[in-house]
Design goal:
Distance between the termini: 54 Å
Radius of gyration: 18 Å
CATH superfamily of the largest domain: Vaccinia Virus protein VP39
CATH architecture of the largest domain: 3-Layer(aba) Sandwich
Structural class: alpha/beta
Number of strands: 15
Helix content: 25-40%
Number of helices: 9
Amino acid sequence: MAFLQVVCELEASVCQPAEDVLMEQGAMSVTFQDPGGDPILEPDVGTSPLWQRVTVLALFEPDVDSKALRRVLERELGDAAVSGWRVERLQDKAWERAWMDDFHPMQFGRRLWVCPSNGRVTAADAVVLKLDPGLAFGTGTHPTTALCLRWLDQQQLEGAQVVDYGCGSGILGIAALLLGARHCHGVDNDPQALTASRENAARNGVAQRMALALPDAEPPPADLLVANILSGVLIELAPRLQRLVKPGGRLALSGILEQQADSVIAAYRPAFLLDPPLIDGDWALITGLRADGD
């Protein structure tokens, strides 16, 4: 079966919204490369390589209207320039092998690793999350996901109840379970994301401890909530996410450009005692504790 791959260049700062637009338009996978063609994977500890522009590769079914797709992308990104647009037809094995060749074990923090099924991690104390690059959703290579994974690695999670809001592949909730959490509720408005999360949870042996649902089924308050979405959605969801964290519980919000951090912080105070944002390139992670009371 042939697939259609759309390739273009974008400003690095709009990677996350561009990915969201492409996924909403039916992309089966979205990946990023630096201008030299290397995949953008998790950098070594203490490094944050950045490029002003990034090459985006999005895989679609062969009948996608690429001209309409470009119009939607340019409309949604506003002033951000979309350049180098081209459309390629790929055979099934071509893109699948490219994903597998580019995806290698990645370390997040001290213990946590994300590793494809054909990879191997030899560290004695490693906590290994098995995740193969699939047709959609996250593998940890984007800074917003990496920020969350590194933060989770630092938390005391033994016995914790967790909510992964906007779970996508389930990577964050599964990581929390592997790091010691007792149970996780994964929430997403995309049924395909819930399917991906369910399959990944089973692959990692935590399916019995992970409940998955659409947003209309609100989970009970948790000891820890992580949400890697977009700043505007996080601001809109602030009252709901506040309800989903117990007093004294922990919060981690990602998908936020650094210049958007103040707006998100304002939406979550005074319900949360917030830490200074953690920054990775252009992206911010906002964390804190739920204050006592309402």
